[in-house]
Amino acid sequence: MRTKKAIYLDHAATTPVDPQVRQIMLPFFSKHYANPSALYKEALIVSGAINDARRKVADVLHTNPDSILFTSGGTESNNLAILGIAHKHINQGKHIIVSAIEHHSVLYPLESLEKDGWSVTKLPVDENGLVNVADVIKAIRAETVLISVMYANNEIGTIEPIAEIGRQLLRYRKEKNTVYPYFHTDAAQAAGYLDLDVEKLHVDLMTVNGGKIYGPKGSGVLFVRRGVAIEPIMTGGTQEKGIRAGTENIPGIVGLGQALKLVQKKQTVENSRLRALSEFFFEKLRKILPDIRLNGLAIGDNRLPNNLNVVFDGVDGEALVIYLDSRGIMCATGSACTAISREPSHVLAAIGKNSAEILCSVRFTLGRETTKAQVITTIKAIAASLKMLKSDLK
Ligand SMILES: *Cc1c(COP(=O)(O)O)cnc(C)c1O
Fold it and tell me: Which residues form the Aminotransferase class V domain (predicted)?
């Protein structure tokens, strides 16, 4: 961070690397640098480290290590899930179901499939961003090969009913005596805060991302259930069972395994701390600014405990973000990924917000280093900046 006093409230964009994670990664840059596919003994140290990381991830997901594929992050895992299933199971049909609020790394591969004659059902969500479970089941056709619904949304923190969708899908498949459609969930935002047991969730594929759980950026996992075949999107070598060719990102893999283990261990304590801090933040802010509202669900069990997405009527969200930055406070408009393009958030549009409300929305996402003192400083800075920004409007 740039200054000692900087306050980072953008943990949904990425998190700092945990010192314990950095520590376990370090030997794999310049000491154990061998290619794990090589034949000499040194390579075994490296391939052993990959196996250890795979075991750590498998333990958290309550699955077997051979169901874990390492990738370059959430984007690749989502692309691989969508395109990998679509290309492998094309003979079954050309229909996919997703929610309207998926991340672009799910939505954009679907656009390319649509050009190849696939049809995509984008399920609407309610005013809080929740997918209706019955709608998901009703949308299934004989030619549906995949359903993809995110575990938790990156902009508004809404937690989707994944286990319930999974349960009803199992019943549907049993009745129809079919293995289709498969079920994928993007758990990039959920991995730090929620239970990732794939048996309880009844998912066939799941995306996890290292850079959002205090692990290294550019590291990710795709869980693929045993017996579910997928087509690679990167071909060449035989790494990752031939599904993901290319020399492995060893420090990234080692770091991700450790990060996931640590974040899940700290989860219960950290979740309640963050939820209390979020409640304090929002209630104090609303005392000063009674007109503010939350986008998405009220703070509670179905919202990520660190996410506040706030509408400041009449205030340009981007101007507020820039003003707060000048005071050493980092936060985001609708979503970090669209910060440059400034196209209005498809998530806020899907929950029924008009373009004025969307442009007046700012996302604060708290994390491990966030303190009550930082929150108080932020509230004061917001109050001061709104006075300035509102007088600018006149
Ligand atoms: C960040 C994010 C991704 C993409 O992850 P990258 O590591 O940037 O590729 C995918 N899905 C969700 C929900 C995310 O928040």
Answer: 7-375
Mutate to test the pocket of ligand 1, among 104, 150, 154, 249 (most ligand atoms within 8 A of CB): 154
Contact call for residues 365 and 152 (beta carbons, < 8 A): no
Whether 337 is a known active-site residue: answer yes
Rounded-to-integer distance, Cα 102 and Cα 120, Å: 13
pLDDT tens-digit readout, 111-120: 999 999 999 9
Average pLDDT over residues 128-138: 98
> Which residues are within 8 A (CB) of 247 and not within 5 positions of it... i.e. 6 or more apart?
35, 37, 237, 239
Are 147 and 179 a contacting pair, CB within 8 Å? no
258 versus 344: which is more confidently predicted?
258
Give pTM, 2 decimals: 0.96
Q: How many Å apart are CA 314 and CA 392, to the nearest integer? A: 11
Q: Domains in the chain, ordered, with CATH? A: 7-16+267-393 (3.90.1150.10), 19-265 (3.40.640.10)
- Specify the ligand 1 atom closest to the Cα of 218: 7
370/41 Cα distance (integer angstroms) = 44
104 by DSSP, 3-state: which? helix
